[in-house]
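Weekly puzzle thread! Below is a chain. First person to post its structure in C-alpha cell form gets bragging rights.
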Amino acid sequence: LREGFKEERTACINRIRGLLAEFGIVLPQSPRVLRSHLHDILEDASNEIAGTARLVLHQALMHWQELDGHIHWCEQRINAHYKDDEQVQRAAGIKGLGALSASAVVATVGDFKQFKNGSQFAAWLGLTPRQNSSGGKSSLGSITKRGDSYLRSLLIQGAKAVVLTGKYNLDPISQWAIALRQRSGWQKTVVALANQNARILWALMTHQRSYEASHISTKPANAIA
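Winning reply:
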C-alpha cells in the first residue's frame, strides 16, 4: 500500500511539473523545492497561469498532501509492527535493514526454517548469480532476479546505504564492503552485501539470535575443507 501511494505521489508531482512547464515555469528536480515554490506561484497574480490552471494546480497540491498523509499513516503502522514484533526487531538490527525492510521480510517470509540454509534463502530472493556452463567451464552472470522483487529491492537499497557509509564505520561488514568495492566495483559490492545480509537474516531468524556487528563467522571444527 505504501509503495502504491509513493507511485501515485510521483505521478502527481510529475503532472504538476508538466502543467507548470506549459506556462514556462521550470523548477529543479526536487519535490521539496517544488512544494516550497508552488504556494508562491499560485498566489502570484502577475504570472501567466490561467485561472482554471490555478484551480487545477491547487487541486493537485491538495492531492499531493493527501498522499503524504496516507504514506505517513502506513509508516506509523510499520513502526508499530516493529515495536511489537521481536522478529522484526531482530531483523532490523542488521546493517542495511531498517524497520521498513525488516517488517516487510518478516511479514512475507513467515517461517524462515522453510529454507534449508541462508544460500537457499538468498537464491529465493533472486540475489544469486546465474550460472552458465559451456565446455565444462562455469561462469557467473548477473543475479537471477527471481522471487519477490520488492524484498530484493529493499535489501539492495539497504546495501547501497551501507557501502556508501562504509568508510565511516570500523565494523567487519563495513570494512569487508570497502575492500570488495576496491577490488570489484560498486555494483558487485552492493549485490554481494545484499546477498550476505539475506544469509545473515536467515541465520538470525532460524537460530533466534540477535545481530552482532563485530561477529566474525567461522567454520565448525568438523567442517569438511
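Puzzle host: Confirmed. Bonus trivia for everyone else. The mean pLDDT is 83.
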